[in-house]
């Protein structure tokens, strides 16, 4: 399996957003360092998720960027994505691994070391840890774990830790110092005036 990209762009499918425009700006800058996680609103249909994921896979291919699908693993399989991401309300990690197969990339959400170790043992390739900081992108989240929470998980597992939640280029150095291998963002790219430039700033902070 190729090494995991460090910059994870999660699609922003809220009304008024244009996730494919953001992706087109990010891809030439981050190329194979980019992991695109197709995440749709809970009330989106499978057909809508499939149509978006299919387009993301096609856009990623020339750049060797990785496409993952959040939650809906049948969509990941249907579009030939590299894998998926699951959390507490989704298939358990072991079941997700069986669905996706042994070579797929499988991300799992984990907020604390015990859950992280269980997810890694069950077959997670990486762990999404957060929210690290306050965010308005997703409602109903628990309190932020901060860099200390990232460190606690990173110290307890051998798989890469991807920090998520309110991440900006400015917060990347602290998260990396806490053990994060990479970061996942929605707003830092979707809300940027110049998503290409914002990609370069995030990537610079991740790879310096
Ligand atoms: C990289 C990454 N980390 C965490 C999450 C959150 O997943 P989950 O807890 O299943 O919540 P939803 O995104 O499904 O609402 C993620 N998607 N990606
Ligand atoms: C899906 C998800 N899970 C935890 S935080 C989050 C949203 C992250 O979005 P942003 O990067 O805009 O804070
Ligand atoms: Mg989920």
Automatic annotation (TrEMBL):
<dbReference type="GO" id="GO:0000287">
    <property type="term" value="F:magnesium ion binding"/>
</dbReference>
<dbReference type="InterPro" id="IPR036206">
    <property type="entry name" value="ThiamineP_synth_sf"/>
</dbReference>
<dbReference type="GO" id="GO:0009229">
    <property type="term" value="P:thiamine diphosphate biosynthetic process"/>
</dbReference>
<feature type="binding site">
    <location>
        <position position="109"/>
    </location>
    <ligand>
        <name>4-amino-2-methyl-5-(diphosphooxymethyl)pyrimidine</name>
    </ligand>
</feature>
<feature type="binding site">
    <location>
        <position position="70"/>
    </location>
    <ligand>
        <name>4-amino-2-methyl-5-(diphosphooxymethyl)pyrimidine</name>
    </ligand>
</feature>
<feature type="domain" description="Thiamine phosphate synthase/TenI">
    <location>
        <begin position="7"/>
        <end position="189"/>
    </location>
</feature>
<feature type="binding site">
    <location>
        <position position="166"/>
    </location>
    <ligand>
        <name>2-[(2R,5Z)-2-carboxy-4-methylthiazol-5(2H)-ylidene]ethyl phosphate</name>
    </ligand>
</feature>
<keyword id="KW-0784">Thiamine biosynthesis</keyword>
<dbReference type="GO" id="GO:0009228">
    <property type="term" value="P:thiamine biosynthetic process"/>
</dbReference>
<feature type="binding site">
    <location>
        <begin position="37"/>
        <end position="41"/>
    </location>
    <ligand>
        <name>4-amino-2-methyl-5-(diphosphooxymethyl)pyrimidine</name>
    </ligand>
</feature>
<dbReference type="InterPro" id="IPR022998">
    <property type="entry name" value="ThiamineP_synth_TenI"/>
</dbReference>
<protein>
    <recommendedName>
        <fullName>Thiamine-phosphate synthase</fullName>
        <ecNumber>2.5.1.3</ecNumber>
    </recommendedName>
</protein>
<dbReference type="InterPro" id="IPR013785">
    <property type="entry name" value="Aldolase_TIM"/>
</dbReference>
<dbReference type="GO" id="GO:0004789">
    <property type="term" value="F:thiamine-phosphate diphosphorylase activity"/>
</dbReference>
<comment type="pathway">
    <text>Cofactor biosynthesis; thiamine diphosphate biosynthesis; thiamine phosphate from 4-amino-2-methyl-5-diphosphomethylpyrimidine and 4-methyl-5-(2-phosphoethyl)-thiazole: step 1/1.</text>
</comment>
<keyword id="KW-0460">Magnesium</keyword>
<dbReference type="InterPro" id="IPR034291">
    <property type="entry name" value="TMP_synthase"/>
</dbReference>
<comment type="similarity">
    <text>Belongs to the thiamine-phosphate synthase family.</text>
</comment>
<comment type="function">
    <text>Condenses 4-methyl-5-(beta-hydroxyethyl)thiazole monophosphate (THZ-P) and 2-methyl-4-amino-5-hydroxymethyl pyrimidine pyrophosphate (HMP-PP) to form thiamine monophosphate (TMP).</text>
</comment>
<dbReference type="GO" id="GO:0005737">
    <property type="term" value="C:cytoplasm"/>
</dbReference>
<feature type="binding site">
    <location>
        <position position="71"/>
    </location>
    <ligand>
        <name>Mg(2+)</name>
    </ligand>
</feature>
<keyword id="KW-0808">Transferase</keyword>
<feature type="binding site">
    <location>
        <position position="90"/>
    </location>
    <ligand>
        <name>Mg(2+)</name>
    </ligand>
</feature>
<dbReference type="Pfam" id="PF02581">
    <property type="entry name" value="TMP-TENI"/>
</dbReference>
<feature type="binding site">
    <location>
        <begin position="135"/>
        <end position="137"/>
    </location>
    <ligand>
        <name>2-[(2R,5Z)-2-carboxy-4-methylthiazol-5(2H)-ylidene]ethyl phosphate</name>
    </ligand>
</feature>
<feature type="binding site">
    <location>
        <position position="138"/>
    </location>
    <ligand>
        <name>4-amino-2-methyl-5-(diphosphooxymethyl)pyrimidine</name>
    </ligand>
</feature>
<keyword id="KW-0479">Metal-binding</keyword>
